[in-house]
Amino acid sequence: MDLQLKDKLVLVTGSTSGIGKATAVSFLKEGAKVIINGRSEENVTKVVEELSTMGTVYGIRADVSIKEETDDLISKIDEIGDLDALVNNTGVFTVKPFTEVTDEEWLEYYQINVMSAVRLSRAFLPKMMERNQGRIINIASEAGIKPYPELIPYGVSKTALITLSRGLAEVAKGTNVTVNSVLPGPTWTEGFGTFITDLAKENGQELDAFITDYFKKDQPTSLIQRYATVEEVADTIVFLASEKASAINGAAQKVEGGIIQHIL
Ligand code: NAD
Q1: Span 159-195, pLDDT tens digits
Q2: 91 lines ligand 1 (CB under 6 A)
Q3: pTM above 0.85, yes or no
Q4: Burial of 75 by CB count in 10 Å (0-12 exposed, 13-18 middle, 19+ buried)?
Q5: Is 109 one of the catalytic residues?
Q6: Which protein residue's CA is at the shortest distance from atom 19 of ligand 1?
């Protein structure tokens, strides 16, 4: 199947590791031109060098939780060309009891997980609508529809992102621009490794046993009973960004192995 992504310009935020980096790789395999983003110049340069053999790769350092740095990122992208697909992937998740999360931490979650997508969408959605083409994909989480007590600020931020996605799809109604969210489930990444280490500690359990028993004990509804791979999530994102997915709009696409026991 030709996804018709050749030479399309794509930004994946937080793409120096994990799902973001795998998404960049998957886009490059389809011939798209990819902008790598991360907070550290060193990591951005390293990933750009690593992936450059696969196609056209740009690197722009910016902390997308900070407005000024995001504005700078937007200007630099405009200098490169028209953005065809925006993947708002940046997100943080930390285990902490609800009563211990400070106001500052709540606002920090909002800046990183929600405002990053708000600011970039505000800049690029009108331009996409003007050109009558484009894709925005927000990486939410199954935690956005299945609240976890140890991850409440994270879950709230992801619910917001799902609502943002549907709302923006309504804004773009009648155009060829689509806006969707992707809801991964447990996917093995650096960020997830830190999360599960903290969760095991919180539960007073030995890490290896906790990781092995995670699905049996903590995620019994998972149909696949395993962690998803970053490639599985990445390929879903890339498909949604393709011409083939033109009729998928305003959707919240789960890639959680069936953890959510709903028909829809
Ligand atoms: P990760 O922590 O492994 O990677 C995140 C990347 O984002 C890193 O490269 C990091 O440097 C970058 N980043 C973080 N803050 C940034 C900022 N302010 N500005 C720019 N870059 C920044 O995470 P991951 O597991 O790959 O998760 C990616 C997305 O998928 C997140 O939004 C996460 O919430 C979501 N998600 C992950 C899982 C999972 O199990 N891994 C499950 C559901 C949803």
Answers
A1: 999 999 999 999 999 999 999 999 999 999 999 999 9
A2: yes
A3: yes
A4: exposed
A5: no
A6: 63
Q: Is the CB of 14 under 6 A from ligand 1?
A: yes
- Quick check: helix, strand or coil at residue 135? strand
Of 58, 109, 154, 227, catalytic: 154
In a domain, 49, yes or no: yes
In sequence order, the 6+-apart residues with CB closer than 8 A to the CB of 256 are 142, 183, 184, 185, 186, 222, 228
Q: Considering the chain, what percentage of its residues have pLDDT values greater than 70? A: 100
Which atom of ligand 1 is least distant from the CA of 17? 9
195 is a domain residue: no
Residue 220 lies in a domain: no
Whether the CB of 235 sits within 6 Å of ligand 1: no
User: Residue 82 maps to which CATH number?
Assistant: 3.40.50.720
Count of domains observed in the chain: 1
Give backbone dihedrals phi and psi of 241, rounded to 5 degrees, phi first.
Answer: -80, -10
Q: Is residue 84 part of a domain?
A: yes
CB distance 155 to ligand 1 below 6 Å: no
CB 51 within 8 A of CB 82: no
Residue with CA nearest ligand 1 atom 39: 187
Q: Domain of 29?
A: 9-186+229-255
Which band of pLDDT confidence, cut at 50, 70 and 90, is reported for residue 203?
confident
